Amino acid sequence: MNADGIASTGALRVLLPAARIQDRIRELGAAIDRDYPEGPVYLIGILKGACFFLADLARAIRRPVRVDFIGISSYGRGKASSGEVRLTKDLDGSIEGADALIVEDIIDSGITLHYLLQVLQQRKPRTLRVATLLDKPSRRLRPVNAAYVGFEIPDEFVVGYGLDYAEDYRNLPDICVLEESGPPPGAERGLA
Ligand code: PRP
């Protein structure tokens, strides 16, 4: 069990099938193409979960993109979040004067993005927006607005398409709810 009482193995219930995720990402890419002026969009992926979404979103955008990654570590999220966040890997390049778009897999409490937006705003990008695949607005502890949201989801523990439980499940093509007990990881998908 982890701190939230979730069993270390659990049944997987598909919440968002892979095809629906890809359809929605194509729509988000088209919206980004429409919204931005000339010039590249600087996609900033938050490690590690967002790298799957970033890879697909980048290919759904027709205008030029640049890709960079940033690492964030937060503490105390298991029970009540302490709100303590620190940078574990910085961007490789400058975003001064750039159209920067943070790419996130999920916004939960909002603590990660609230911190990151403050840090990156100080670097004087021309614009700074957020694209998140998933949003759990019912969990918010800090105000965060995403310009692009794939899906609003209920307060359930989700894995797959980059999202993990103890580093498992990131490679599932679907986004699944991890139920509290059941077969071992991958059994439902015939992987176990
Ligand atoms: C997850 C997710 C977001 C963050 C959202 O990252 O990828 O970055 O939590 O939570 P918040 O809105 O409550 O701050 P996690 O720390 O699990 O790291 P990972 O991406 O490496 O799995």
What amount of the residues lies in strands? Answer: 25-35%
Q: What percentage of residues falls in helices of 4 or more residues?
A: 10-25%
Q: Which ligands does the model contain, each kind named once?
A: 1-O-pyrophosphono-5-O-phosphono-alpha-D-ribofuranose
Strands in their spatial order, largest beta sheet: 4-3-2-5-6-7
Number of strands: 9
Low-confidence stretches: 1-8, 186-192
Please give the count of helices: 3
From N to C, what is the helix and strand string?
Answer: EHEHEEEHEEEE
Whole-number mean pLDDT: 88
- Biggest sheet statistics: 6 strands, mixed
Shape: globular
> What's the gyration radius in Å?
17 Å
Secondary-structure class: alpha/beta
Give the CA-CA distance, first to last residue.
20 Å
Task: Provide structural commentary.
- With 192 residues, the chain is α/β, with parallel strands linked by helices.
- The chain has 3 helices and 9 strands; from the N terminus they run βαβαβββαββββ.
- The protein has helices at residues 18-35, 51-60, 111-121, and strands spanning 12-16, 41-47, 65-74, 85-89, 99-107, 127-135, 148-152, 158-159, 175-178.
- It has a 6-stranded mixed β-sheet, sandwiched between helices. A 3-stranded antiparallel β-sheet has the order 1-9-8, covered by helices on one side.
- Helix 2 links the parallel strand 2 and strand 3.
- Residues 1-8 and 186-192 have low confidence and may be disordered.
- The structure holds 1-O-pyrophosphono-5-O-phosphono-alpha-D-ribofuranose (PRP).
